[in-house]
Every structure is written in C-alpha cells, then in structure tokens.
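Note to self: keep these together.
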Amino acid sequence: MPGGELTGEQWLKMDDIANQWGNGTLKLSSRQAVQFHGIIKFELKKTIQAMNDVLLDSIAACGDVNRNVMCSPNPALSPIHAQVFPWAEKLSQHLLPQTRAYHEIWLDEGKGEGKQLVSGGEDSAETLEPLYGKHYLPRKFKIGIAIPPENDMDIYTNCLGFIAIADGDRLAGFNVTVGGGLGMTFGRDDTFPRLADTIGFCTPEQMLDVAYKVLEIQRDFGNREDRKLSRFKYTIENFGVEWFKNELHERLGFELQDARPVTFSTGVDRYGWQQGIDGKWIALLHVEHGRIKDKDGYPQKTALREIAQSGLARFRLSGNQNLLLTEVEEK
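Structure:
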C-alpha cells in the first residue's frame, strides 16, 4: 500500500475482514498501512485471500526486507505532489521480494504443482532474489518520501529518505538521506536513536537505482551477528558517511550531486477541508491513536463504511495515523 492509497471498494473489504475475522476494528499504522487485530491463525489464509480479491497484499509487511514505502499522501495538493506520488509505487515494486512463495502458500498458486524453488533453497536462490539473495537483509528496512515544506513522513527517522526538490512546478529530483531510526534497546548502551544524514541529490530517473544500491550495501555490510545492532543506522554509524558515499558511488557508476537547500516548516497533518489542483476536495480526519471503531456518540467506523459505499471519495492514510477522504466533488 505505497503512500497509503485505498479505493472505496478496498476500504469496504478491509472493513469486512475486520468484522468477520478480526476484533471489529481497523488500526491505521504509522507507516500508512492497515493492521487487523484479533485474527486467529486458522483464519489467516482466508484473510489474505480476501485482501487479494481487491488487489491488496501483505507482501513485505514484515520480515528483513524493505517495508511499505511512505509518501505524502495526497497527490492533488500541488503539481509537485502529483509528480512525486507515483515514485512511491515504483520504488515499492522495484524492491519487492521476487519469490512466489507468498502466492504459493496463501493464494494456492499452482495448487502444489510445479512449484519453483523459493528463496533459501540451493543453486537458484540468487536468481529468484537478485537483491535479497538467500539470507535477505540483516533487519527490516524503511523508506520515506517527503515533500517540503511538510515533513509529515518524519523523513530523518527512515533508513533511506528521498526529499523532493522542486524547480518551479517541475520535479527536479530528490535529496537523499541515509541512516535514520528511532529505536533502541533498554539496557543496551550501544543502541541509540539516530537522525539520517543527507548525502546528496539524485534525479528522478536515478532514484530506483540509488535505492537498490543502498539496500545492496546494507545486505553486504549490515551486522548479521547481533540483531540489536543490525539496523541500517548502525551500518552508517560504524562505517561512516564518507565510506558509505564512496561505496555507493562505486556501485552506481556515478556520483550523487550536491544536496539542494531544503526547509521544513511542519510535520503535522492539516485537518479539515482543502481543495486540490484538480478542483476536487480533500478532508483530513483525525483518528484517535489510529484506531477506527464505533463508540458511543461517535460511530466513525460505520460512517466511513457508508462513505465508501456511496463512492463519493477515495481513502488515503497519513503517516500520523489519520485518514484523508480524497477526490470529493463539490455538489
């Protein structure tokens, strides 16, 4: 779900899953995704197949791979937003695991016949997973895309960040940030939060290659002996930013340009109504702790279901666990 985008049909399916197999609520995560709580193991396959019915999946929702790519959620806010948002989908697709194991296990692809070797097997693992190989990454990896002056993606806390740089109404490219992360382990003084470093600028056409090579470096040099120290921020901290830039440039075959000036003025969501460049309206709704549910005097979950059934809006999730209703026409 790159950038947190959902159609009304997809929202209805999420609501159905929560009602039928979950605890009756939906949880909007801080990475622009939907979580289901209370699903028992025996209902898991039905849940995943129901998601697949509306072209959604949980591939790379966990594990030592790149997770959901975050992006400022509303492409209608400006011409730059409209140009940036598709790159979240391209980046997500570019870094997905290639194995068909998910489809074989949960979607009955092939129904047990003619299954190909999945990652972790012998000989052809690198062929099936040219990026992740047999052992995947040392730990999970997180990517965000921010559009100044709003830092609603908290870009400097991501493993890899892309900050959109505008030239008038044209997307010139992205500043590249590496090595962010907020986590630490209690009682381990060698673990710590870290803000990302800005290492340069790339054009839109270079973005996918830059991301791929960054993940390659983490795959090859990340700590695989101690999972408490295996996040990408520790790779940057231990080897140094200059070493990393040199390694990245060598793998890319070109050098990043100097970073462009950037100013962020806010990291919060703007609640209420805004009109997009397409003339349609966007409503940003507060969701307490990201939990969609009905409660006395405030039937939020029911209201959102009725909106989805009406076809009056699309749904987008913010990085602050709130919800946008988009493409609302003025009538």
